[in-house]
């Protein structure tokens, strides 16, 4: 049982951070504010060669909206600074050689771990999504197509499935933009229901990094931006992962 | 595509509600504030005879904490006014003969719909949970044991999986306590990570019903209440389901 709360962790970490000047956008430089540069975080997160299955690739269940916007962003990865994030079965695969900070250790006696947003592996039935990240602009776009196993009100996505998709997009953005590791706060205002099978586009922006916290906003809309599904904000605590070979292990 | 937002719906509904006095707890009487009594909502929601599988029953994956607290609350259903809510595969099963308000119609060309929190049917791998509701006190308790498919940080439940569990517990509470149908706002402060396989207990309370909205709070803790995992609030919009045979269909 892990008893050290995020607040205590933040206070402990804050002592270390006091020697550094907090960074507020614009002019954000997480490399100065925290340990690793965004570039090194991204390159470790997106291995060029891997045998791991990437679940963020088109499949037969993707609708025309999802497919065409995916192709649009894929083009932008060639010249516009966007990076397509791979999505492996577990976060463990993304942080190979790294581990959670000391004290955050849980029993690990099961082998089939899945990140929640990849819990359903039948194509089209659960989460279909892909995240593009822009390291310089500190923003992300997530293309999200909820399947029939994500239902809430008949025919529409469960509010909780969108909340989880937001948390996951915030999470990847926070980690890559500045080693944001733990959700401290998630605040969502729901505006419209998302029909199952349709495309929702999440636009996430890092607003500021201050006092060891990343503050982000998200607007979720239909592709034509005519319908706003939800607006949200997220606050993440910065905390560095440790090398597996660390003497503190 | 459904374009009428919750805010517009709330304003439309508010005109109807203006003739009624808003109710604030204590002394809450949703039956006066809205259409159906809590008792009639509960009895329709919990059919005595049904062939539908109830997923909120103990199975081999439930740990000792989950099992013993389940038994405790089951005893309270006999004399203390608590009701164990059944949990079917889809919300469609819970509201048979009813439908969403006019205008909220989505294509329904797939047969295998699942409520998001029952999306994984392999025992112990995903969501294991059961909700108990107290109609008089307008409160709920949800026993939640996250499995390894709900992972976020290695070994711990994804923040989004807890957000969805909160939204679902709020949702059932809001509906039964006063026909709360749509999440308007969800605000979560995360305090500690939940180890996969352990028990988290969500305590939900309806704080007030006012201006066609239900305001609820939730605290999520370990069974011994030594560790607070998260605190949250939820606001739901009251809206009546319609009879399938309604002339408005």
Automatic annotation (TrEMBL), chains A, B:
Q: Which ranges of the sequence are coiled-coil?
A: none
One GO biological process term:
cardiolipin acyl-chain remodeling
Highest taxon of source: Eukaryota
Give the Thioesterase domain ranges: 155-225
GO CC terms in record = mitochondrial matrix
Q: Name one Pfam family in it.
A: 4HBT
One example of the protein's molecular function in GO is: long-chain fatty acyl-CoA hydrolase activity
| Protein name in UniProt | Thioesterase superfamily member 5
């Amino acid at each position: 049982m892990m008893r050290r709360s995020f607040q205590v962790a933040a206070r402990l970490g804050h002592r270390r951070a006091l020697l550094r000047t907090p960074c507020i956008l614009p002019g954000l430089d997480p490399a100065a504010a925290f340990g690793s540069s965004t570039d090194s975080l991204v390159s470790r997160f997106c291995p060029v060669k891997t045998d791991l299955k990437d679940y963020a690739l088109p499949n037969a269940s993707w609708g025309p909206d999802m497919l065409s916007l995916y192709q649009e962003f894929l083009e932008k990865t060639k010249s516009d600074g966007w990076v397509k994030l791979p999505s492996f079965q577990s976060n463990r695969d993304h942080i190979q050689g790294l581990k959670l900070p000391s004290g955050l250790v849980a029993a690990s006696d099961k082998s089939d771990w899945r990140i929640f947003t990849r819990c359903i592996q039948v194509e089209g039935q659960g989460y279909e999504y892909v995240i593009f990240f822009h390291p310089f602009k500190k923003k992300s776009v997530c293309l999200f197509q909820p399947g029939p196993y994500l239902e809430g009100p008949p025919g529409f996505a469960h509010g909780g499935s969108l909340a989880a998709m937001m948390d996951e997009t915030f999470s990847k953005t926070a980690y890559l933009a500045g080693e944001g590791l733990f959700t401290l706060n998630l605040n969502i205002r729901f505006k419209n229901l998302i029909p199952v099978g349709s495309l929702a586009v999440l636009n996430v922006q890092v607003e500021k990094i201050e006092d060891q916290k990343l503050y982000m906003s998200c607007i979720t809309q239909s592709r034509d931006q005519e319908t706003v599904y939800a607006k949200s904000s997220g606050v993440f605590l910065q905390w560095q992962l440790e090398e597996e070979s660390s003497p503190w292990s």
